[in-house]
Amino acid sequence: MSADDFEDLLAEGAAAPVEGWDFGWADGRATEERPPWGYARLMAARMADAGAALDIDTGGGEVLAGIPAPPPLLVATEAWPPNVAVARRTLAGLGASVVRVAERPPLPFRDASFDLVVSRHPVRTWWDEIARVLRPGGSYLSQQIGAGTVRELSEAILGPLPPPADRHTGPAVAAAEAAGLRVVDLRTATLRTVFHDIAVVVWFLRKVIWTVPGFTVEAYRPELRRLHDRIRAEGPFVAHARRFLIEARRP
C-alpha cells in the first residue's frame, strides 16, 4: 500500500467479517498473549469427566469445538443471531445442541440439569441462573474479561475514561457466593496486546463491541486517523488485555 493508505485500511477493516468468535482474520496484524492457565485445556479436562454440560455464550462455538471428548449431553447457548448459525455448523460434529437465548435470564433449562457449566468471555455472568441449573456437586468454569481490558485502545478513541466500574474479581466472588456457590479457584492475568495497523483496530472495534460502545468508522474517523498516524510514526499500538479465571462449585 501507499505511504498514506489510511482509506484503504479503513475499508479493509470495515469489510472484514465479524461473525463468530474466531480471531483468525487478525493473524499477522495483531497479537495477544495467552493466559497462563490454558482455559481450553482445563475445559476439555472437565468435559471429559462430565455427563451433561452447558457452554454459555459460545459465540461461534470455536473454543468448545476443540474438546476431544464431549460428554453424552452437550448444550451451548448464544444470544447473537448471526453466531447461532455459525455455532450450529461448528459444533455439529460434537453432537452438541445450540440454543438461541435472550440476553437476560432465565435460561431455558430445568433446575439441576448440568453437572458442568462453562463460559469463555461471557457478556454477563448470571450467577443465580448458573447455580440453579447446576446439579449438587457440579462446577462452573469460566475465563472472564477483567476490569479495564484494552483500556489504552478505548482511550485512544474516546479520550480519558473514569476507572472501570465492573468486571472486578471481588464482586464476582461475592456474587458467586451469594448465589450459593463456593469459589475454588481464582487467577488473574494481564496480557500484552499489539495492533499493527488501523485495519485490525477497526475490525477489533466492530467485533469486540464493548471496547467503544456504538463504534462506527464514520463516527470516529478523526480519532482513527490520529491513531493511524501514530502507528505509522511510532510503530504498533500496544494495549493490555485483562483476564481472570474463576471456578465455583455448587455444594
Give a description of the structure.
The longest helix is centred in the C-terminal third of the chain and has 14 residues. This protein has one domain: Vaccinia Virus protein VP39 (Rossmann fold, 3-Layer(aba) Sandwich). It is an alpha/beta fold and 251 residues long. 32% of the residues lie in helices and 25% in strands. It has an eight-stranded mixed β-sheet with strand order 1-7-8-6-5-2-3-4, with helices on both faces. It is globular, with a radius of gyration of 19 Å.
Instruction: Give the CATH architecture.
Output: 3-Layer(aba) Sandwich
Residues in β-strands, percent: 25-35%
Low-confidence spans: none
Please give the radius of gyration in angstroms: 19 Å
Query: How far is the N terminus from the C terminus?
Result: 59 Å
How many structural domains does the protein architecture include? Answer: 1
**CATH-defined fold name:** Rossmann fold
Layout of secondary structure:
Blueprint: H1 6-15, E1 30-32, H2 39-49, E2 52-55, E3 73-78, H3 81-91, E4 97-100, E5 114-120, H4 127-133, E6 134-145, H5 151-158, H6 169-178, E7 182-195, H7 198-207, H8 221-234, E8 237-249
Parallel strand pairs: 2-3, 2-5, 3-4, 5-6
Antiparallel strand pairs: 1-7, 6-8, 7-8
Keywords: Methyltransferase, Transferase
GO molecular function: S-adenosylmethionine-dependent methyltransferase activity
Protein name: Methyltransferase domain-containing protein
